[in-house]
């Protein structure tokens, strides 16, 4: 069975898109590919109002991940552990799981929990300097950083010209 990917990083591309990049683990000597699953961490994926004050699902946890039926809302396979996720709803939280897969089986998942898609990056950007010679400053950068409970995460925002 292959080892799970490690050192997963998130890049906030736009208000509705993320890029996930991980480092592959050992393939066990066999060709492998990678699987990404996205689940809503929100009660009622249709975003209907609920009687609960928190939108985060309170489901039992185990060392194998979330126990219970939280449906996968997005699934993608790739030969490398690099994925682009589009059309996520801003203001809601998601749980991402990245797996390595080969002929012997599927690795344990590498979870990225509490990923919150923030509002449009463009709404929080200002051009610095005068004329067109300056760069851009992102106001409220903290709102773009996913919250992380028990896992360390690195977030890099790159804006090219």
Please render the helix and strand layout as text.
Elements lengths: L5 E9 L2 E7 L9 E8 L20 E2 L2 E2 L5 E7 L3 E4 L7 E10 L2 E2 L3 E7 L8 E3 L8 E3 L15 E2 L6
Parallel strand pairs: 1-13
Antiparallel strand pairs: 1-2, 2-7, 3-6, 3-8, 4-5, 8-9, 8-10, 11-12
Protein name: Fibronectin type-III domain-containing protein
InterPro entries: FN3_dom, FN3_sf, Ig-like_fold
Pfam families: fn3 (PF00041)
Task: Characterise this structure.
Residues 4-120 form the Fibronectin type-III domain. It holds the Pfam family fn3. This is Fibronectin type-III domain-containing protein. With 161 residues, the protein is mostly beta strands. The protein has one domain (6-155): Sandwich (Immunoglobulin-like). Helices cover 0% and strands 41% of the residues. It is built from no helices and 13 strands. Strands 3, 6, 8, 9 and 10 form a five-stranded antiparallel sheet that branches. The relative contact order is 0.26.
Write out the CATH superfamily name: Immunoglobulins
Task: Give, in order, the helices and strands.
Answer: EEEEEEEEEEEEE
Give a short account of the largest sheet: 5 strands, antiparallel
Strand percent estimate: 35-45%
CATH classification, class level: Mainly Beta
- The pLDDT mean sits at 70
What is the name of the CATH architecture?
Answer: Sandwich
- Look at the helices and sheets and give the structural class: mainly beta
Number of helices: 0
Instruction: Summarize the amount of helix as a percent range.
Output: under 10%
Calculate Rg over CA atoms: 18 Å
Distance N to C terminus: 43 Å
**How many beta-strand segments?**
13
Q: Rough shape?
A: elongated
Low-confidence segments: 44-67, 123-153
Within the CATH hierarchy, at the fold level, what is the topology?
Answer: Immunoglobulin-like
Total number of distinct structural domains? 1
Organism: Bracon brevicornis
Protein name: Fibronectin type-III domain-containing protein
Domain Fibronectin type-III: 4-120
């Amino acid at each position: 069975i292959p080892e799970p990917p490690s050192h997963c990083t998130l890049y906030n591309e736009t208000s509705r898109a993320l890029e996930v990049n991980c480092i592959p683990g050992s393939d066990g000597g066999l060709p492998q590919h990678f699987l990404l699953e996205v689940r809503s961490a929100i009660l009622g994926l249709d975003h209907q109002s609920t009687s609960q004050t928190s939108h985060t699902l309170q489901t039992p946890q185990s060392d194998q991940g979330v126990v219970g039926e939280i449906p996968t809302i997005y699934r993608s396979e790739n030969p490398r552990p690099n994925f682009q996720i589009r059309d996520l709803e801003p203001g809601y939280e998601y749980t991402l799981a990245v797996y390595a897969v080969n002929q012997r089986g599927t690795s344990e998942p590498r979870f990225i929990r509490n990923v919150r898609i923030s509002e449009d990056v463009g709404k929080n950007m200002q051009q610095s300097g005068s004329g067109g010679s300056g760069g851009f400053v992102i106001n409220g950068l903290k709102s773009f950083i996913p919250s992380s409970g028990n896992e360390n995460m690195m977030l890099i925002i790159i804006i090219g010209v």
